[in-house]
Amino acid sequence: MPEFLNLYYFCNGSENRTVEYLSSVYSDKDRLAEVIEEITKEHLNAKTIKGKSVLLKPNWVKHSSKTEDELCLRTNDNFLLSTLTYILKNSPSKVIIADAPIQRCDWKKMLSITFLAELKKLSYQFNIPVEVIDFRRQIINTRQGNVLTEVRPLSDYVIVDTGEKSYLEPVSLPNENRFRVTCYDPDRMREAHTQGIHKYCIAKEFFEADVVISLPKIKTHEKTCITGALKNLVGINGDKDFLPHHRIGGTQRGGDCYPGKSILRYWAELALDRANHRQQSVGSRYWRYLSAILWRLSIPSSEHQLAAGWYGNDTVWRMVLDLNLIAEYGKSDGLISTHKQRQIFSLCDAVIAGQGDGPLRPKPLPLGFISFTDNSPLNDWIMAILMGFNPDKIPILKKTGLSSQGKKITLNGEDIEMEELARHTQYALPPTGWIKYLNFCQ
After folding, report:
1. Are residues 315 and 307 in contact, defined by beta-carbon separation less than 8 angstroms?
2. Distance between CA atoms of 395 and 317, rounded to whole angstroms?
3. What is the pLDDT of residues 243-254, one digit of tens each?
4. Does an H or E element contain 231, and which?
């Protein structure tokens, strides 16, 4: 069977392609469930689900900081509940809903009492266990300001080494410790990633599931431009110390954090390293303060970001594609097979997408779509087009080597060509570090 992408569009014209109208789509759980059934039933049905364990992997990046976050920050609660309802109708043996948010995410704020009550109600109604799991190993308690480590034991994970197959291998050098995550200890990163070794910490539940359904929220992303089906699988990794997000230094120092070789910016990075080495100590605050001062003194532009949130980030897309490699070819013994081990389905929430400084500070974008696919690159390529971006200029898409041959695309049940989707484009505001670059590439 050819790889497929099924799209459903909720808007009849520009008059109802608004945040107000599309918010009402989320409110109508029955209609959502009907649409989800319509675009998934060929692949998700009693034949493929009955008696199987199902993992639903939403985008639960963090709790809401403002009201509009409920619309564009995470996979919408009612979207998830409608999906769960349809899955339960097909009699799985159990359903697990899980993700690994950022370490500062307040899990209790993110998952409302009402939402958890609905999950419990559905579990009781269908007499099928529904479990919600936080995949994180490390959490920052924002109320007390302390770091909680080993929240889940390492025995709950499988360490998978992609080795020389890693997309990070071409930028890995012996005896160098250049990979970074902004708020994590670089020494721990070095243990997982160096030349010939590229380890990831994958939750066991992922390998134990018979059916994996990813539920991304389509948004812009400061480091990859777009986050969707590909990026959502990063959440199967439970320890961010295993996730390279950039390489220290400017582009003229062998890094990809910012363009050039500013000494002040490099000192700011080194000060931040000192802070991350001392996360549990009083001295950490001093080094963070010094890092911020040095960074401001460098007079950074929009392409200069200490967290490498710009178009020149050459690390995150590699890490994301590593995790997609593991998702499809990884085994529970930690090895990478030469044969695909499982099929990953993605059911994407793009009813109201996120634009601007995503993934953590997006603004609502009334896109009006739901998509269902077994081809993550194809899905994200199409979503980029729908958001007005040139996919050829986005590394996470271009590097997948996507070919449209043999791909079946449907829109509201009708076969269409990829080019026809351009008429549904809703131009999104890019992340700050991508604006000049993408405007230049139009």
Report:
1. no
2. 7
3. 999 999 999 999
4. helix 229-232
Average pLDDT over residues 86-99: 98
Of 334, 362, 345, nearest to 242 by C-alpha is 334
| Strand ranges, E, within 358-396 | 361-365, 369-373
d(C-alpha 180, C-alpha 187), whole Å: 9
Q: Is the dihedral of CA 387, 389, 391, 394 positive or negative?
A: negative
Position of tokens 């608004």? 18
> Helices 19-27 and 77-89 sit at what angle, rounded to 10 degrees?
40
Q: What are phi and psi of 151, to 5 degrees?
A: -60, -40
Cα gap 395→389, rounded to integer Å: 12
On the CB side of 276, CA atoms within 13 Å amount to: 18
- CB-based burial, 229-248: b 16+ in 10 Å, e otherwise: bbbbbbbbbbbbbbbbbbbb
Instruction: At 253, list the tokens.
Output: 């120092």
Structure-block tokens of residue 234: 């990063």
pTM for this predicted structure = 0.95
**For 106-120, what is each residue's pLDDT tens digit?**
999 999 999 999 999
CB distance 53 to 209 below 8 Å: yes
Sign of CA dihedral 176, 177, 178, 179: positive
DSSP 8-state code for residue 125:
H
- Say what the pLDDT of residue 405 is: 62
Contacts of 205 (CB under 8 A, 6+ apart): 55, 96, 98, 133, 135
